[in-house]
Amino acid sequence: MRVKVNGKKVEIPYRVVNRLDVNRTVDGIIVSTHIGIKVLWDGISFLEVSAPTSYRGHLCGLCGNFNSLPKDDFTNRRGKLLQDPQPFGQSWLVGAKKSCVRPKSVVNMDRSRRCRGRKDHRLCTRLRSQIFDACHKKVNPNMYYKACLQDMCECPTENCYCESFTAYVHECKRLGIQLPHWRKSTRCRTGWDQFSGSGASLGLRFP
């Protein structure tokens, strides 16, 4: 994976004094800012944003508002609560039109329901298996299982189940539960494994 700061490629670890630090982790790249916000990206599709509790109730955006009330997380840029995730996501687009590709059509929910009967969705049941058993009492896997079914339906590649697995494992880690062998047992690769060359690129910009 490559990292660019203001358009220029940099080597990891990288530091901008009193601004941010960029480091490599087992799972990907972590950007730690001087204001306490951290962003972890696995080089594929998993992105995790963490913030100290002092920001509780003072945030907004795609990751919600950090008030421990999931029901109002779909609040758009204008402060209106939405029910549909697609317009919610689009309301937070930044940059020029070329920066983000807008979806041309909404996924047909009837098709989505039919997809769940496909045999390859059995891969998602691994979340409920002994592979993740050490964490089941702390983190209920059902929400991640449902997300996995949706991912497998909408994603053309077979390993899309790994996205939900990764999210589950990170929540387990946050609670102090380690699952060191889950990748080997599920054949889920890291961004470093998948893009051993130049492949994925993380771009950072600031004044």
From TrEMBL:
It is found in: Secreted. One of its GO terms (biological process) is positive regulation of BMP signaling pathway. Its main location: secreted. GO terms for cellular component: extracellular region. Pfam families: C8 (PF08742), VWD (PF00094). It comes from the Eukaryota. Residues 1-101 form the VWFD domain. Keywords: Secreted, Signal. The keyword Secreted applies. This is Kielin/chordin-like protein. It comes from Apis cerana (Indian honeybee). The lineage of its organism: Eukaryota, Metazoa, Ecdysozoa, Arthropoda, Hexapoda.
